Amino acid sequence: MLILLIIFIIILLIVEQISLQYGLQKIHYELQVSRPLLEPDEEFTITSTVENHKFWFVPYISMTELFPVGIIVPGQEDNLSDSGISENLYSSDSMTSLQQNIGTWMHCSFYLMPNQQYVRKVTAKMPRRGRYLFTGAMMNGGDLLGLKDGNARFPATQELVVIPKALPCPDLGIALGGFLGDMSVNRFLFEDPMLTIGFSEYSGREPMRDISWTQSARMGRMMVKNYDHTVDLSVTVLLNIQSVKNVFENEETVEQCISMTRSVCEILEEKQIKYSFITNSVMAGSMNFFSSIEEGLGNRHFYSVMESLGRATMLSCESFSSTILRACRSGEQGRYHIIITPDENDAWSSALQKLRDLSDGKVFVLTPSMVKQDDSKKEGVA
Question: Cα dist. 261→33, 87, 371 in Å?
Answer without folding.
Answer: 27, 29, 13
